[in-house]
């Protein structure tokens, strides 16, 4: 076991499987005591099952670490508070919060129901707030702490995922603001956009969304036939465990000056994402009217932009 996080206490939400499981295991390997949170619901958020969280907690303990399972839902304020209370009651403190829990309810926006919208926003976006609020109280008082949130490249736009994309990009905005709110107290708040093979990303819904994106671009669907060796190599390159090293690094003292940023991570690559900034500016004394924009826009800003979903 490593010593980078010796004596620290960490929470990982959605830690019963996939990316969260890998994060919990590596945190424990580096010496942290871990609250393994997972409601144990389906990909769509239905039901509950204590076994995933219990299995990961038991796995950590079998390897010589310390862990406790928690089954609260991040989608409620009570659940978020209880998750933080579990850390305090089990280990006497809290130093690290990894927000990872999530579900999928994919549908084209014109077919999406209010329930499908609300459930995804509640688990992802509100679910980051409920834990961050209560962890933030502790971190502010002790003037230290690490928070790593889980966004997604889908937040940049992904057909059939209006709810998920809105939640995930909202998480990045939440991250940047919490970094300002808590940074003065020695707390860092960062986000990742993971690319990994999990039950969410390898779901039939995600494959259908990928095929729709290809069709929208006028491209033919890729051949699905591949050898077992090809499939195994693809899955190995996208192992969820490959996300954990960056997340754990951001929780160490070495990353104390990294705050308010988001990273793309997956396979062999770690990338720092750019902050949104003005790309091109038009300035006109007295402001712009419609005639002036009609005259200037097409050959200024207009020539640098294109419709990503142009009708063929």
Beta fraction = 5-15%
Low-confidence stretches: none
Q: What's the CATH topology label?
A: Rossmann fold
Q: What is the percent of helical residues?
A: 40-55%
CATH superfamily: NAD(P)-binding Rossmann-like Domain
Question: Which features characterize this protein?
Answer:
9 helices, single chain, 312 residues, eight-stranded mixed sheet, alpha/beta
Topology (SSEs and partners):
Blueprint (H helix, E strand, L loop, with lengths): L8 E4 L5 H12 L3 E5 L13 H12 L4 E4 L6 H15 L4 E3 L15 H29 L2 E6 L11 H22 L3 E8 L9 H13 L11 H10 L6 H6 L12 E5 L2 E4 L17 H7 L16
Parallel strand pairs: 1-2, 1-4, 2-3, 4-5, 5-6, 6-7
Antiparallel strand pairs: 7-8
Helix pairs in contact: 3-4, 4-5
Characterize this entry briefly.
This protein is an alpha/beta fold. Helices cover 40% and strands 12% of the residues.
Structural notes for this entry:
The chain has one domain (9-199, 238-272): NAD(P)-binding Rossmann-like Domain (Rossmann fold), CATH 3.40.50. The longest helix has 29 residues, at 114-142. α3 packs parallel to α4. α2 links the parallel β2 and β3 (67-70). 40% of the residues lie in helices and 12% in strands. The chain has an eight-stranded mixed beta sheet, with helices on both faces. The model has no long low-confidence stretch (mean pLDDT 90). The chain has 312 residues and is of the alpha/beta class. The chain has nine helices and eight strands.
């Amino acid at each position: 076991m490593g010593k980078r996080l010796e004596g620290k206490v960490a929470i990982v939400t959605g830690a019963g499987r996939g990316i969260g499981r890998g994060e919990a295991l590596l945190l424990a390997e580096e010496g942290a005591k871990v609250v393994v949170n997972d409601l144990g619901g389906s990909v769509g958020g239905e039901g509950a099952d204590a076994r995933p969280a219990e299995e990961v907690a038991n796995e950590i303990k079998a390897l010589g670490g310390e862990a406790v399972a928690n089954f609260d839902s991040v989608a409620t304020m009570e659940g978020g508070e209880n998750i933080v209370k579990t850390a305090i009651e089990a280990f006497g403190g809290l130093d690290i919060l990894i927000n990872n829990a999530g579900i999928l309810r994919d549908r084209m926006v014109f077919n999406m129901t209010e329930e499908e919208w609300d459930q995804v926003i509640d688990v992802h976006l509100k679910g980051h707030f409920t834990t961050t609020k209560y962890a933030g109280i502790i971190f502010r008082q002790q003037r230290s702490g690490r928070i790593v949130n889980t966004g997604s490249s889908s937040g940049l736009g992904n057909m059939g995922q209006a709810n998920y994309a809105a939640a995930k990009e909202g998480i990045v905005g939440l991250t940047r603001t919490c970094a300002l709110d808590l940074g003065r107290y020695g707390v860092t708040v960062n986000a990742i956009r993971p690319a990994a093979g999990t039950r969410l990303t390898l779901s039939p819904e995600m494959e259908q969304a990928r095929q729709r994106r290809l069709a929208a671009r006028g491209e033919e669907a890729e051949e699905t036939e591949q050898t077992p060796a090809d499939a195994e190599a693809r899955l190995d390159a996208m192992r969820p465990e490959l996300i954990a090293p960056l997340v754990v690094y951001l929780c160490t003292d070495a990353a104390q000056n990294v705050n308010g940023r988001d990273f793309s991570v997956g396979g062999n690559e770690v990338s720092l994402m750019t902050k949104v900034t003005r790309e091109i500016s038009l300035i006109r004394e007295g402001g712009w009217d419609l005639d002036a924009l009609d005259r200037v826009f097409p050959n200024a800003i207009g020539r640098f932009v294109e419709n990503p979903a142009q009708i063929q």
